[in-house]
Amino acid sequence: MHPNEKYEEYFPNTTMSEELPDAYRSCALRIESYAVIEKVIEEYKIKEMLSGRFGDDTGLLLDLVAYMIVDEENAGQYYPDFAFCHPLFS
Q: Whole-model pTM?
């Protein structure tokens, strides 16, 4: 919780703790879908097939495919939220 601008006025004796920086990734990743998709990719050797064509971007392509499978949509603007909470292949 973040106190508003009046907090220090009404509670002058309390000390405010310093604000932590924004996290790069979530402290609790949702791994269940990643584990299943990774097993399918491993079993069918999809990463090896794609890496010949996409090279270093193969991980990002797999991340986008996993996002579309998990969220059942193709709205790319929500990918950063997905990437914050889920493990990535890239």
A: 0.72
